Amino acid sequence: MNSDTTAALRARVAELFPALQADLEALVRIPSVSAGAFDQAHVAASAAATEQLLRDAGLPDVQILSAPRPDGTAGAPAVVARRPAPEGAPTVLLYAHHDVQPPGDAATWDTDPFEPTQVGERLFGRGAADDKAGIVAHLGALRALGLPEGEDLPVGVTVFLEGEEESGSPSFRAFLEAHRELLAADVIVVADSTNWKVGVPALTTSLRGLVDGEVELRVLEHAVHSGMFGGAVLDAVTLMSRLVATFHDEAGDVAIEGLVTASEPEVDYDEAAFRADSSLLDGVALAGTGTVSGRLWAKPALSVIGIDVTSVAAASNTIAPSCTAKISLRLAPGQDPAAADAALAAHVAKHAPLGARVTWHSGEQGKPFLAPGDSAAMRAARAAFTEAWGTAPVDVGVGGSIPFIADLLEVFPDAAILVTGVEDPDSRAHGANESVHLGELQRVVLAEALLLAKLGEGL
Ligand SMILES: [Zn+2]
Question: What is the CA radius of gyration of the chain?
Fold first, then answer.
């Protein structure tokens, strides 16, 4: 692609942007919270509104579809629109989600969460970034490439706008299976992550996986009097504490044998910023070793997320016979979840304090994601981002999981997945005062248009 094309696309995106911003504002006004306690009519309304936007964009085949959730209820409405690939060109699936997180306490917002409000270069509102900006990124890229009039889209596109991502995508897997042919693509662009900072783009190249489960510890057949038996018997909570203490070493790194650690990221998370963002109390040291970003993205992390013990209010002078703790283990990219689960089971068996009966009950498993560094799609994305921002993208990880990415990889193992950003560190997705930086969003639109043009030149 020559620089004339880039300049023309840049000018076209600038010209289109006010209308795109208006479309984004209209979507933000629909309170499409997918959490069950909220009125799902709004999710249906946002599906209908995005369906209309895609129709107006000139995509010939637009449908609202859903699939059953594992509990048998109907999944939230997703919108799928297609435009077939020109002969020999690849097909690109453009993913975003039209549902949003609940707004939380309205008093913690400076503006009405569902009345989009521009302050300086930022547009505030629930979903303004996560992920209605992703919808607008796709829409903008298609318009910049000539839709609705143009007949010359360089690639086939399938736009897929999910309606229940913020509720854990319960029907996602069934949806993929049911619509495998409709959604099949060579490249999948997931516009639901973050850029590194305003002015510096990023590709999300890794996500941690997850294993959880419960460790049950038993020491007595039944509870006994702590005066009569204490001293020769340790209570189950004390023994559980000893077991839990073996999960980390002195420095706070996970000490379970056999877990994978990925390589250190190329960028670091400033420690002062991390302290502020996490609300870590003054004087409390960070856990673990290595870079902060490495601890968050490239290493396992273990938390005790629940423990069943007698409450303080109900306490009596009794030695607890048993105790159960729920363990959540985040997995480094490259880690097989089943192997991590087996390592946890072996660890608790090996470290049973004083021979207490310890049982591991396996729970959920989610695969980590690690993008190949050198795929043709990745090279096209890096080149497009570099042109759009005037600076190369950095590779970032995400410490959490996006469970649907693992589903995409399993159902479409041959597709290249690009996880792109519409957020920046000030976007506050899921929090009060969520916002998108409009200058960044304009660059996101341009980058995606450039990416589609490059993919059309061949993979
Ligand atoms: Zn999202």
Answer: 25
Pick from 417, 401, 419: nearest CA to 409? 417
What element of type H or E holds 173? helix 172-178
In a structure prediction context, what are the per-residue pLDDT tens digits for the chain, which is 459 residues long?
667 789 999 999 999 999 999 999 999 999 999 999 999 999 999 999 999 999 999 998 899 999 999 999 999 999 999 999 999 999 999 999 999 999 999 899 999 999 999 999 999 999 999 999 999 999 999 999 988 887 678 999 999 999 999 998 999 999 999 999 999 999 999 999 999 999 999 999 999 999 999 999 999 999 999 999 999 999 999 999 999 999 999 999 999 999 999 999 999 999 998 998 888 999 999 999 999 999 999 999 999 999 999 999 999 999 999 999 999 999 999 999 999 999 999 999 999 999 999 999 999 898 999 988 789 999 999 999 999 999 999 999 999 888 789 889 889 999 999 999 999 989 999 999 999 999 999 999 999 999 999 999 977
CA of 408 to the centre of ligand 1 (A): 16
User: Which segments of 189-259 does DSSP mark as H helices, in order?
Assistant: 226-229, 236-245
Task: State the distance from the centre of ligand 1 to the C-alpha of 209, rounded, in angstroms.
Answer: 17
- CA dist., res. 173 & res. 318, Å (int): 48
Q: 99, 192, 423, 440: which is the annotated catalytic residue?
A: 99
**170-204 as b/e: b if 16+ CB within 10 A:** bbbbbbbebbeebbebbbbbbbbbbbbeeebbbbb
How many angstroms is it from 102 CA to the middle of ligand 1? 12
Cβ contact 302:347 at 8 Å: no
Active-site residue identified among 25, 51, 164, 165: 165
Q: How far apart are CA 138 and CA 134, in angstroms?
A: 6
Q: Would you call 99 a catalytic residue per the annotation? A: yes
Terminal alpha carbon distance of the chain = 14
Q: Which two tokens stand for residue 320?
A: 């607890």
Q: Is 388 helix (H, G, I), strand (E, B) or coil?
A: helix
- Distance of CA 434 from the midpoint of ligand 1 (Å): 12
Residue 153 tokens, joined: 């889209």
What's the CA-to-centroid distance between 127 and ligand 1, angstroms?
Answer: 8
Adjacency order of strands within the sheet including 301-308: 301-308, 322-331, 209-218, 357-366
pTM of the entire predicted model: 0.87
Nearest to 190 by CA among 422, 424, 35, 458: 422
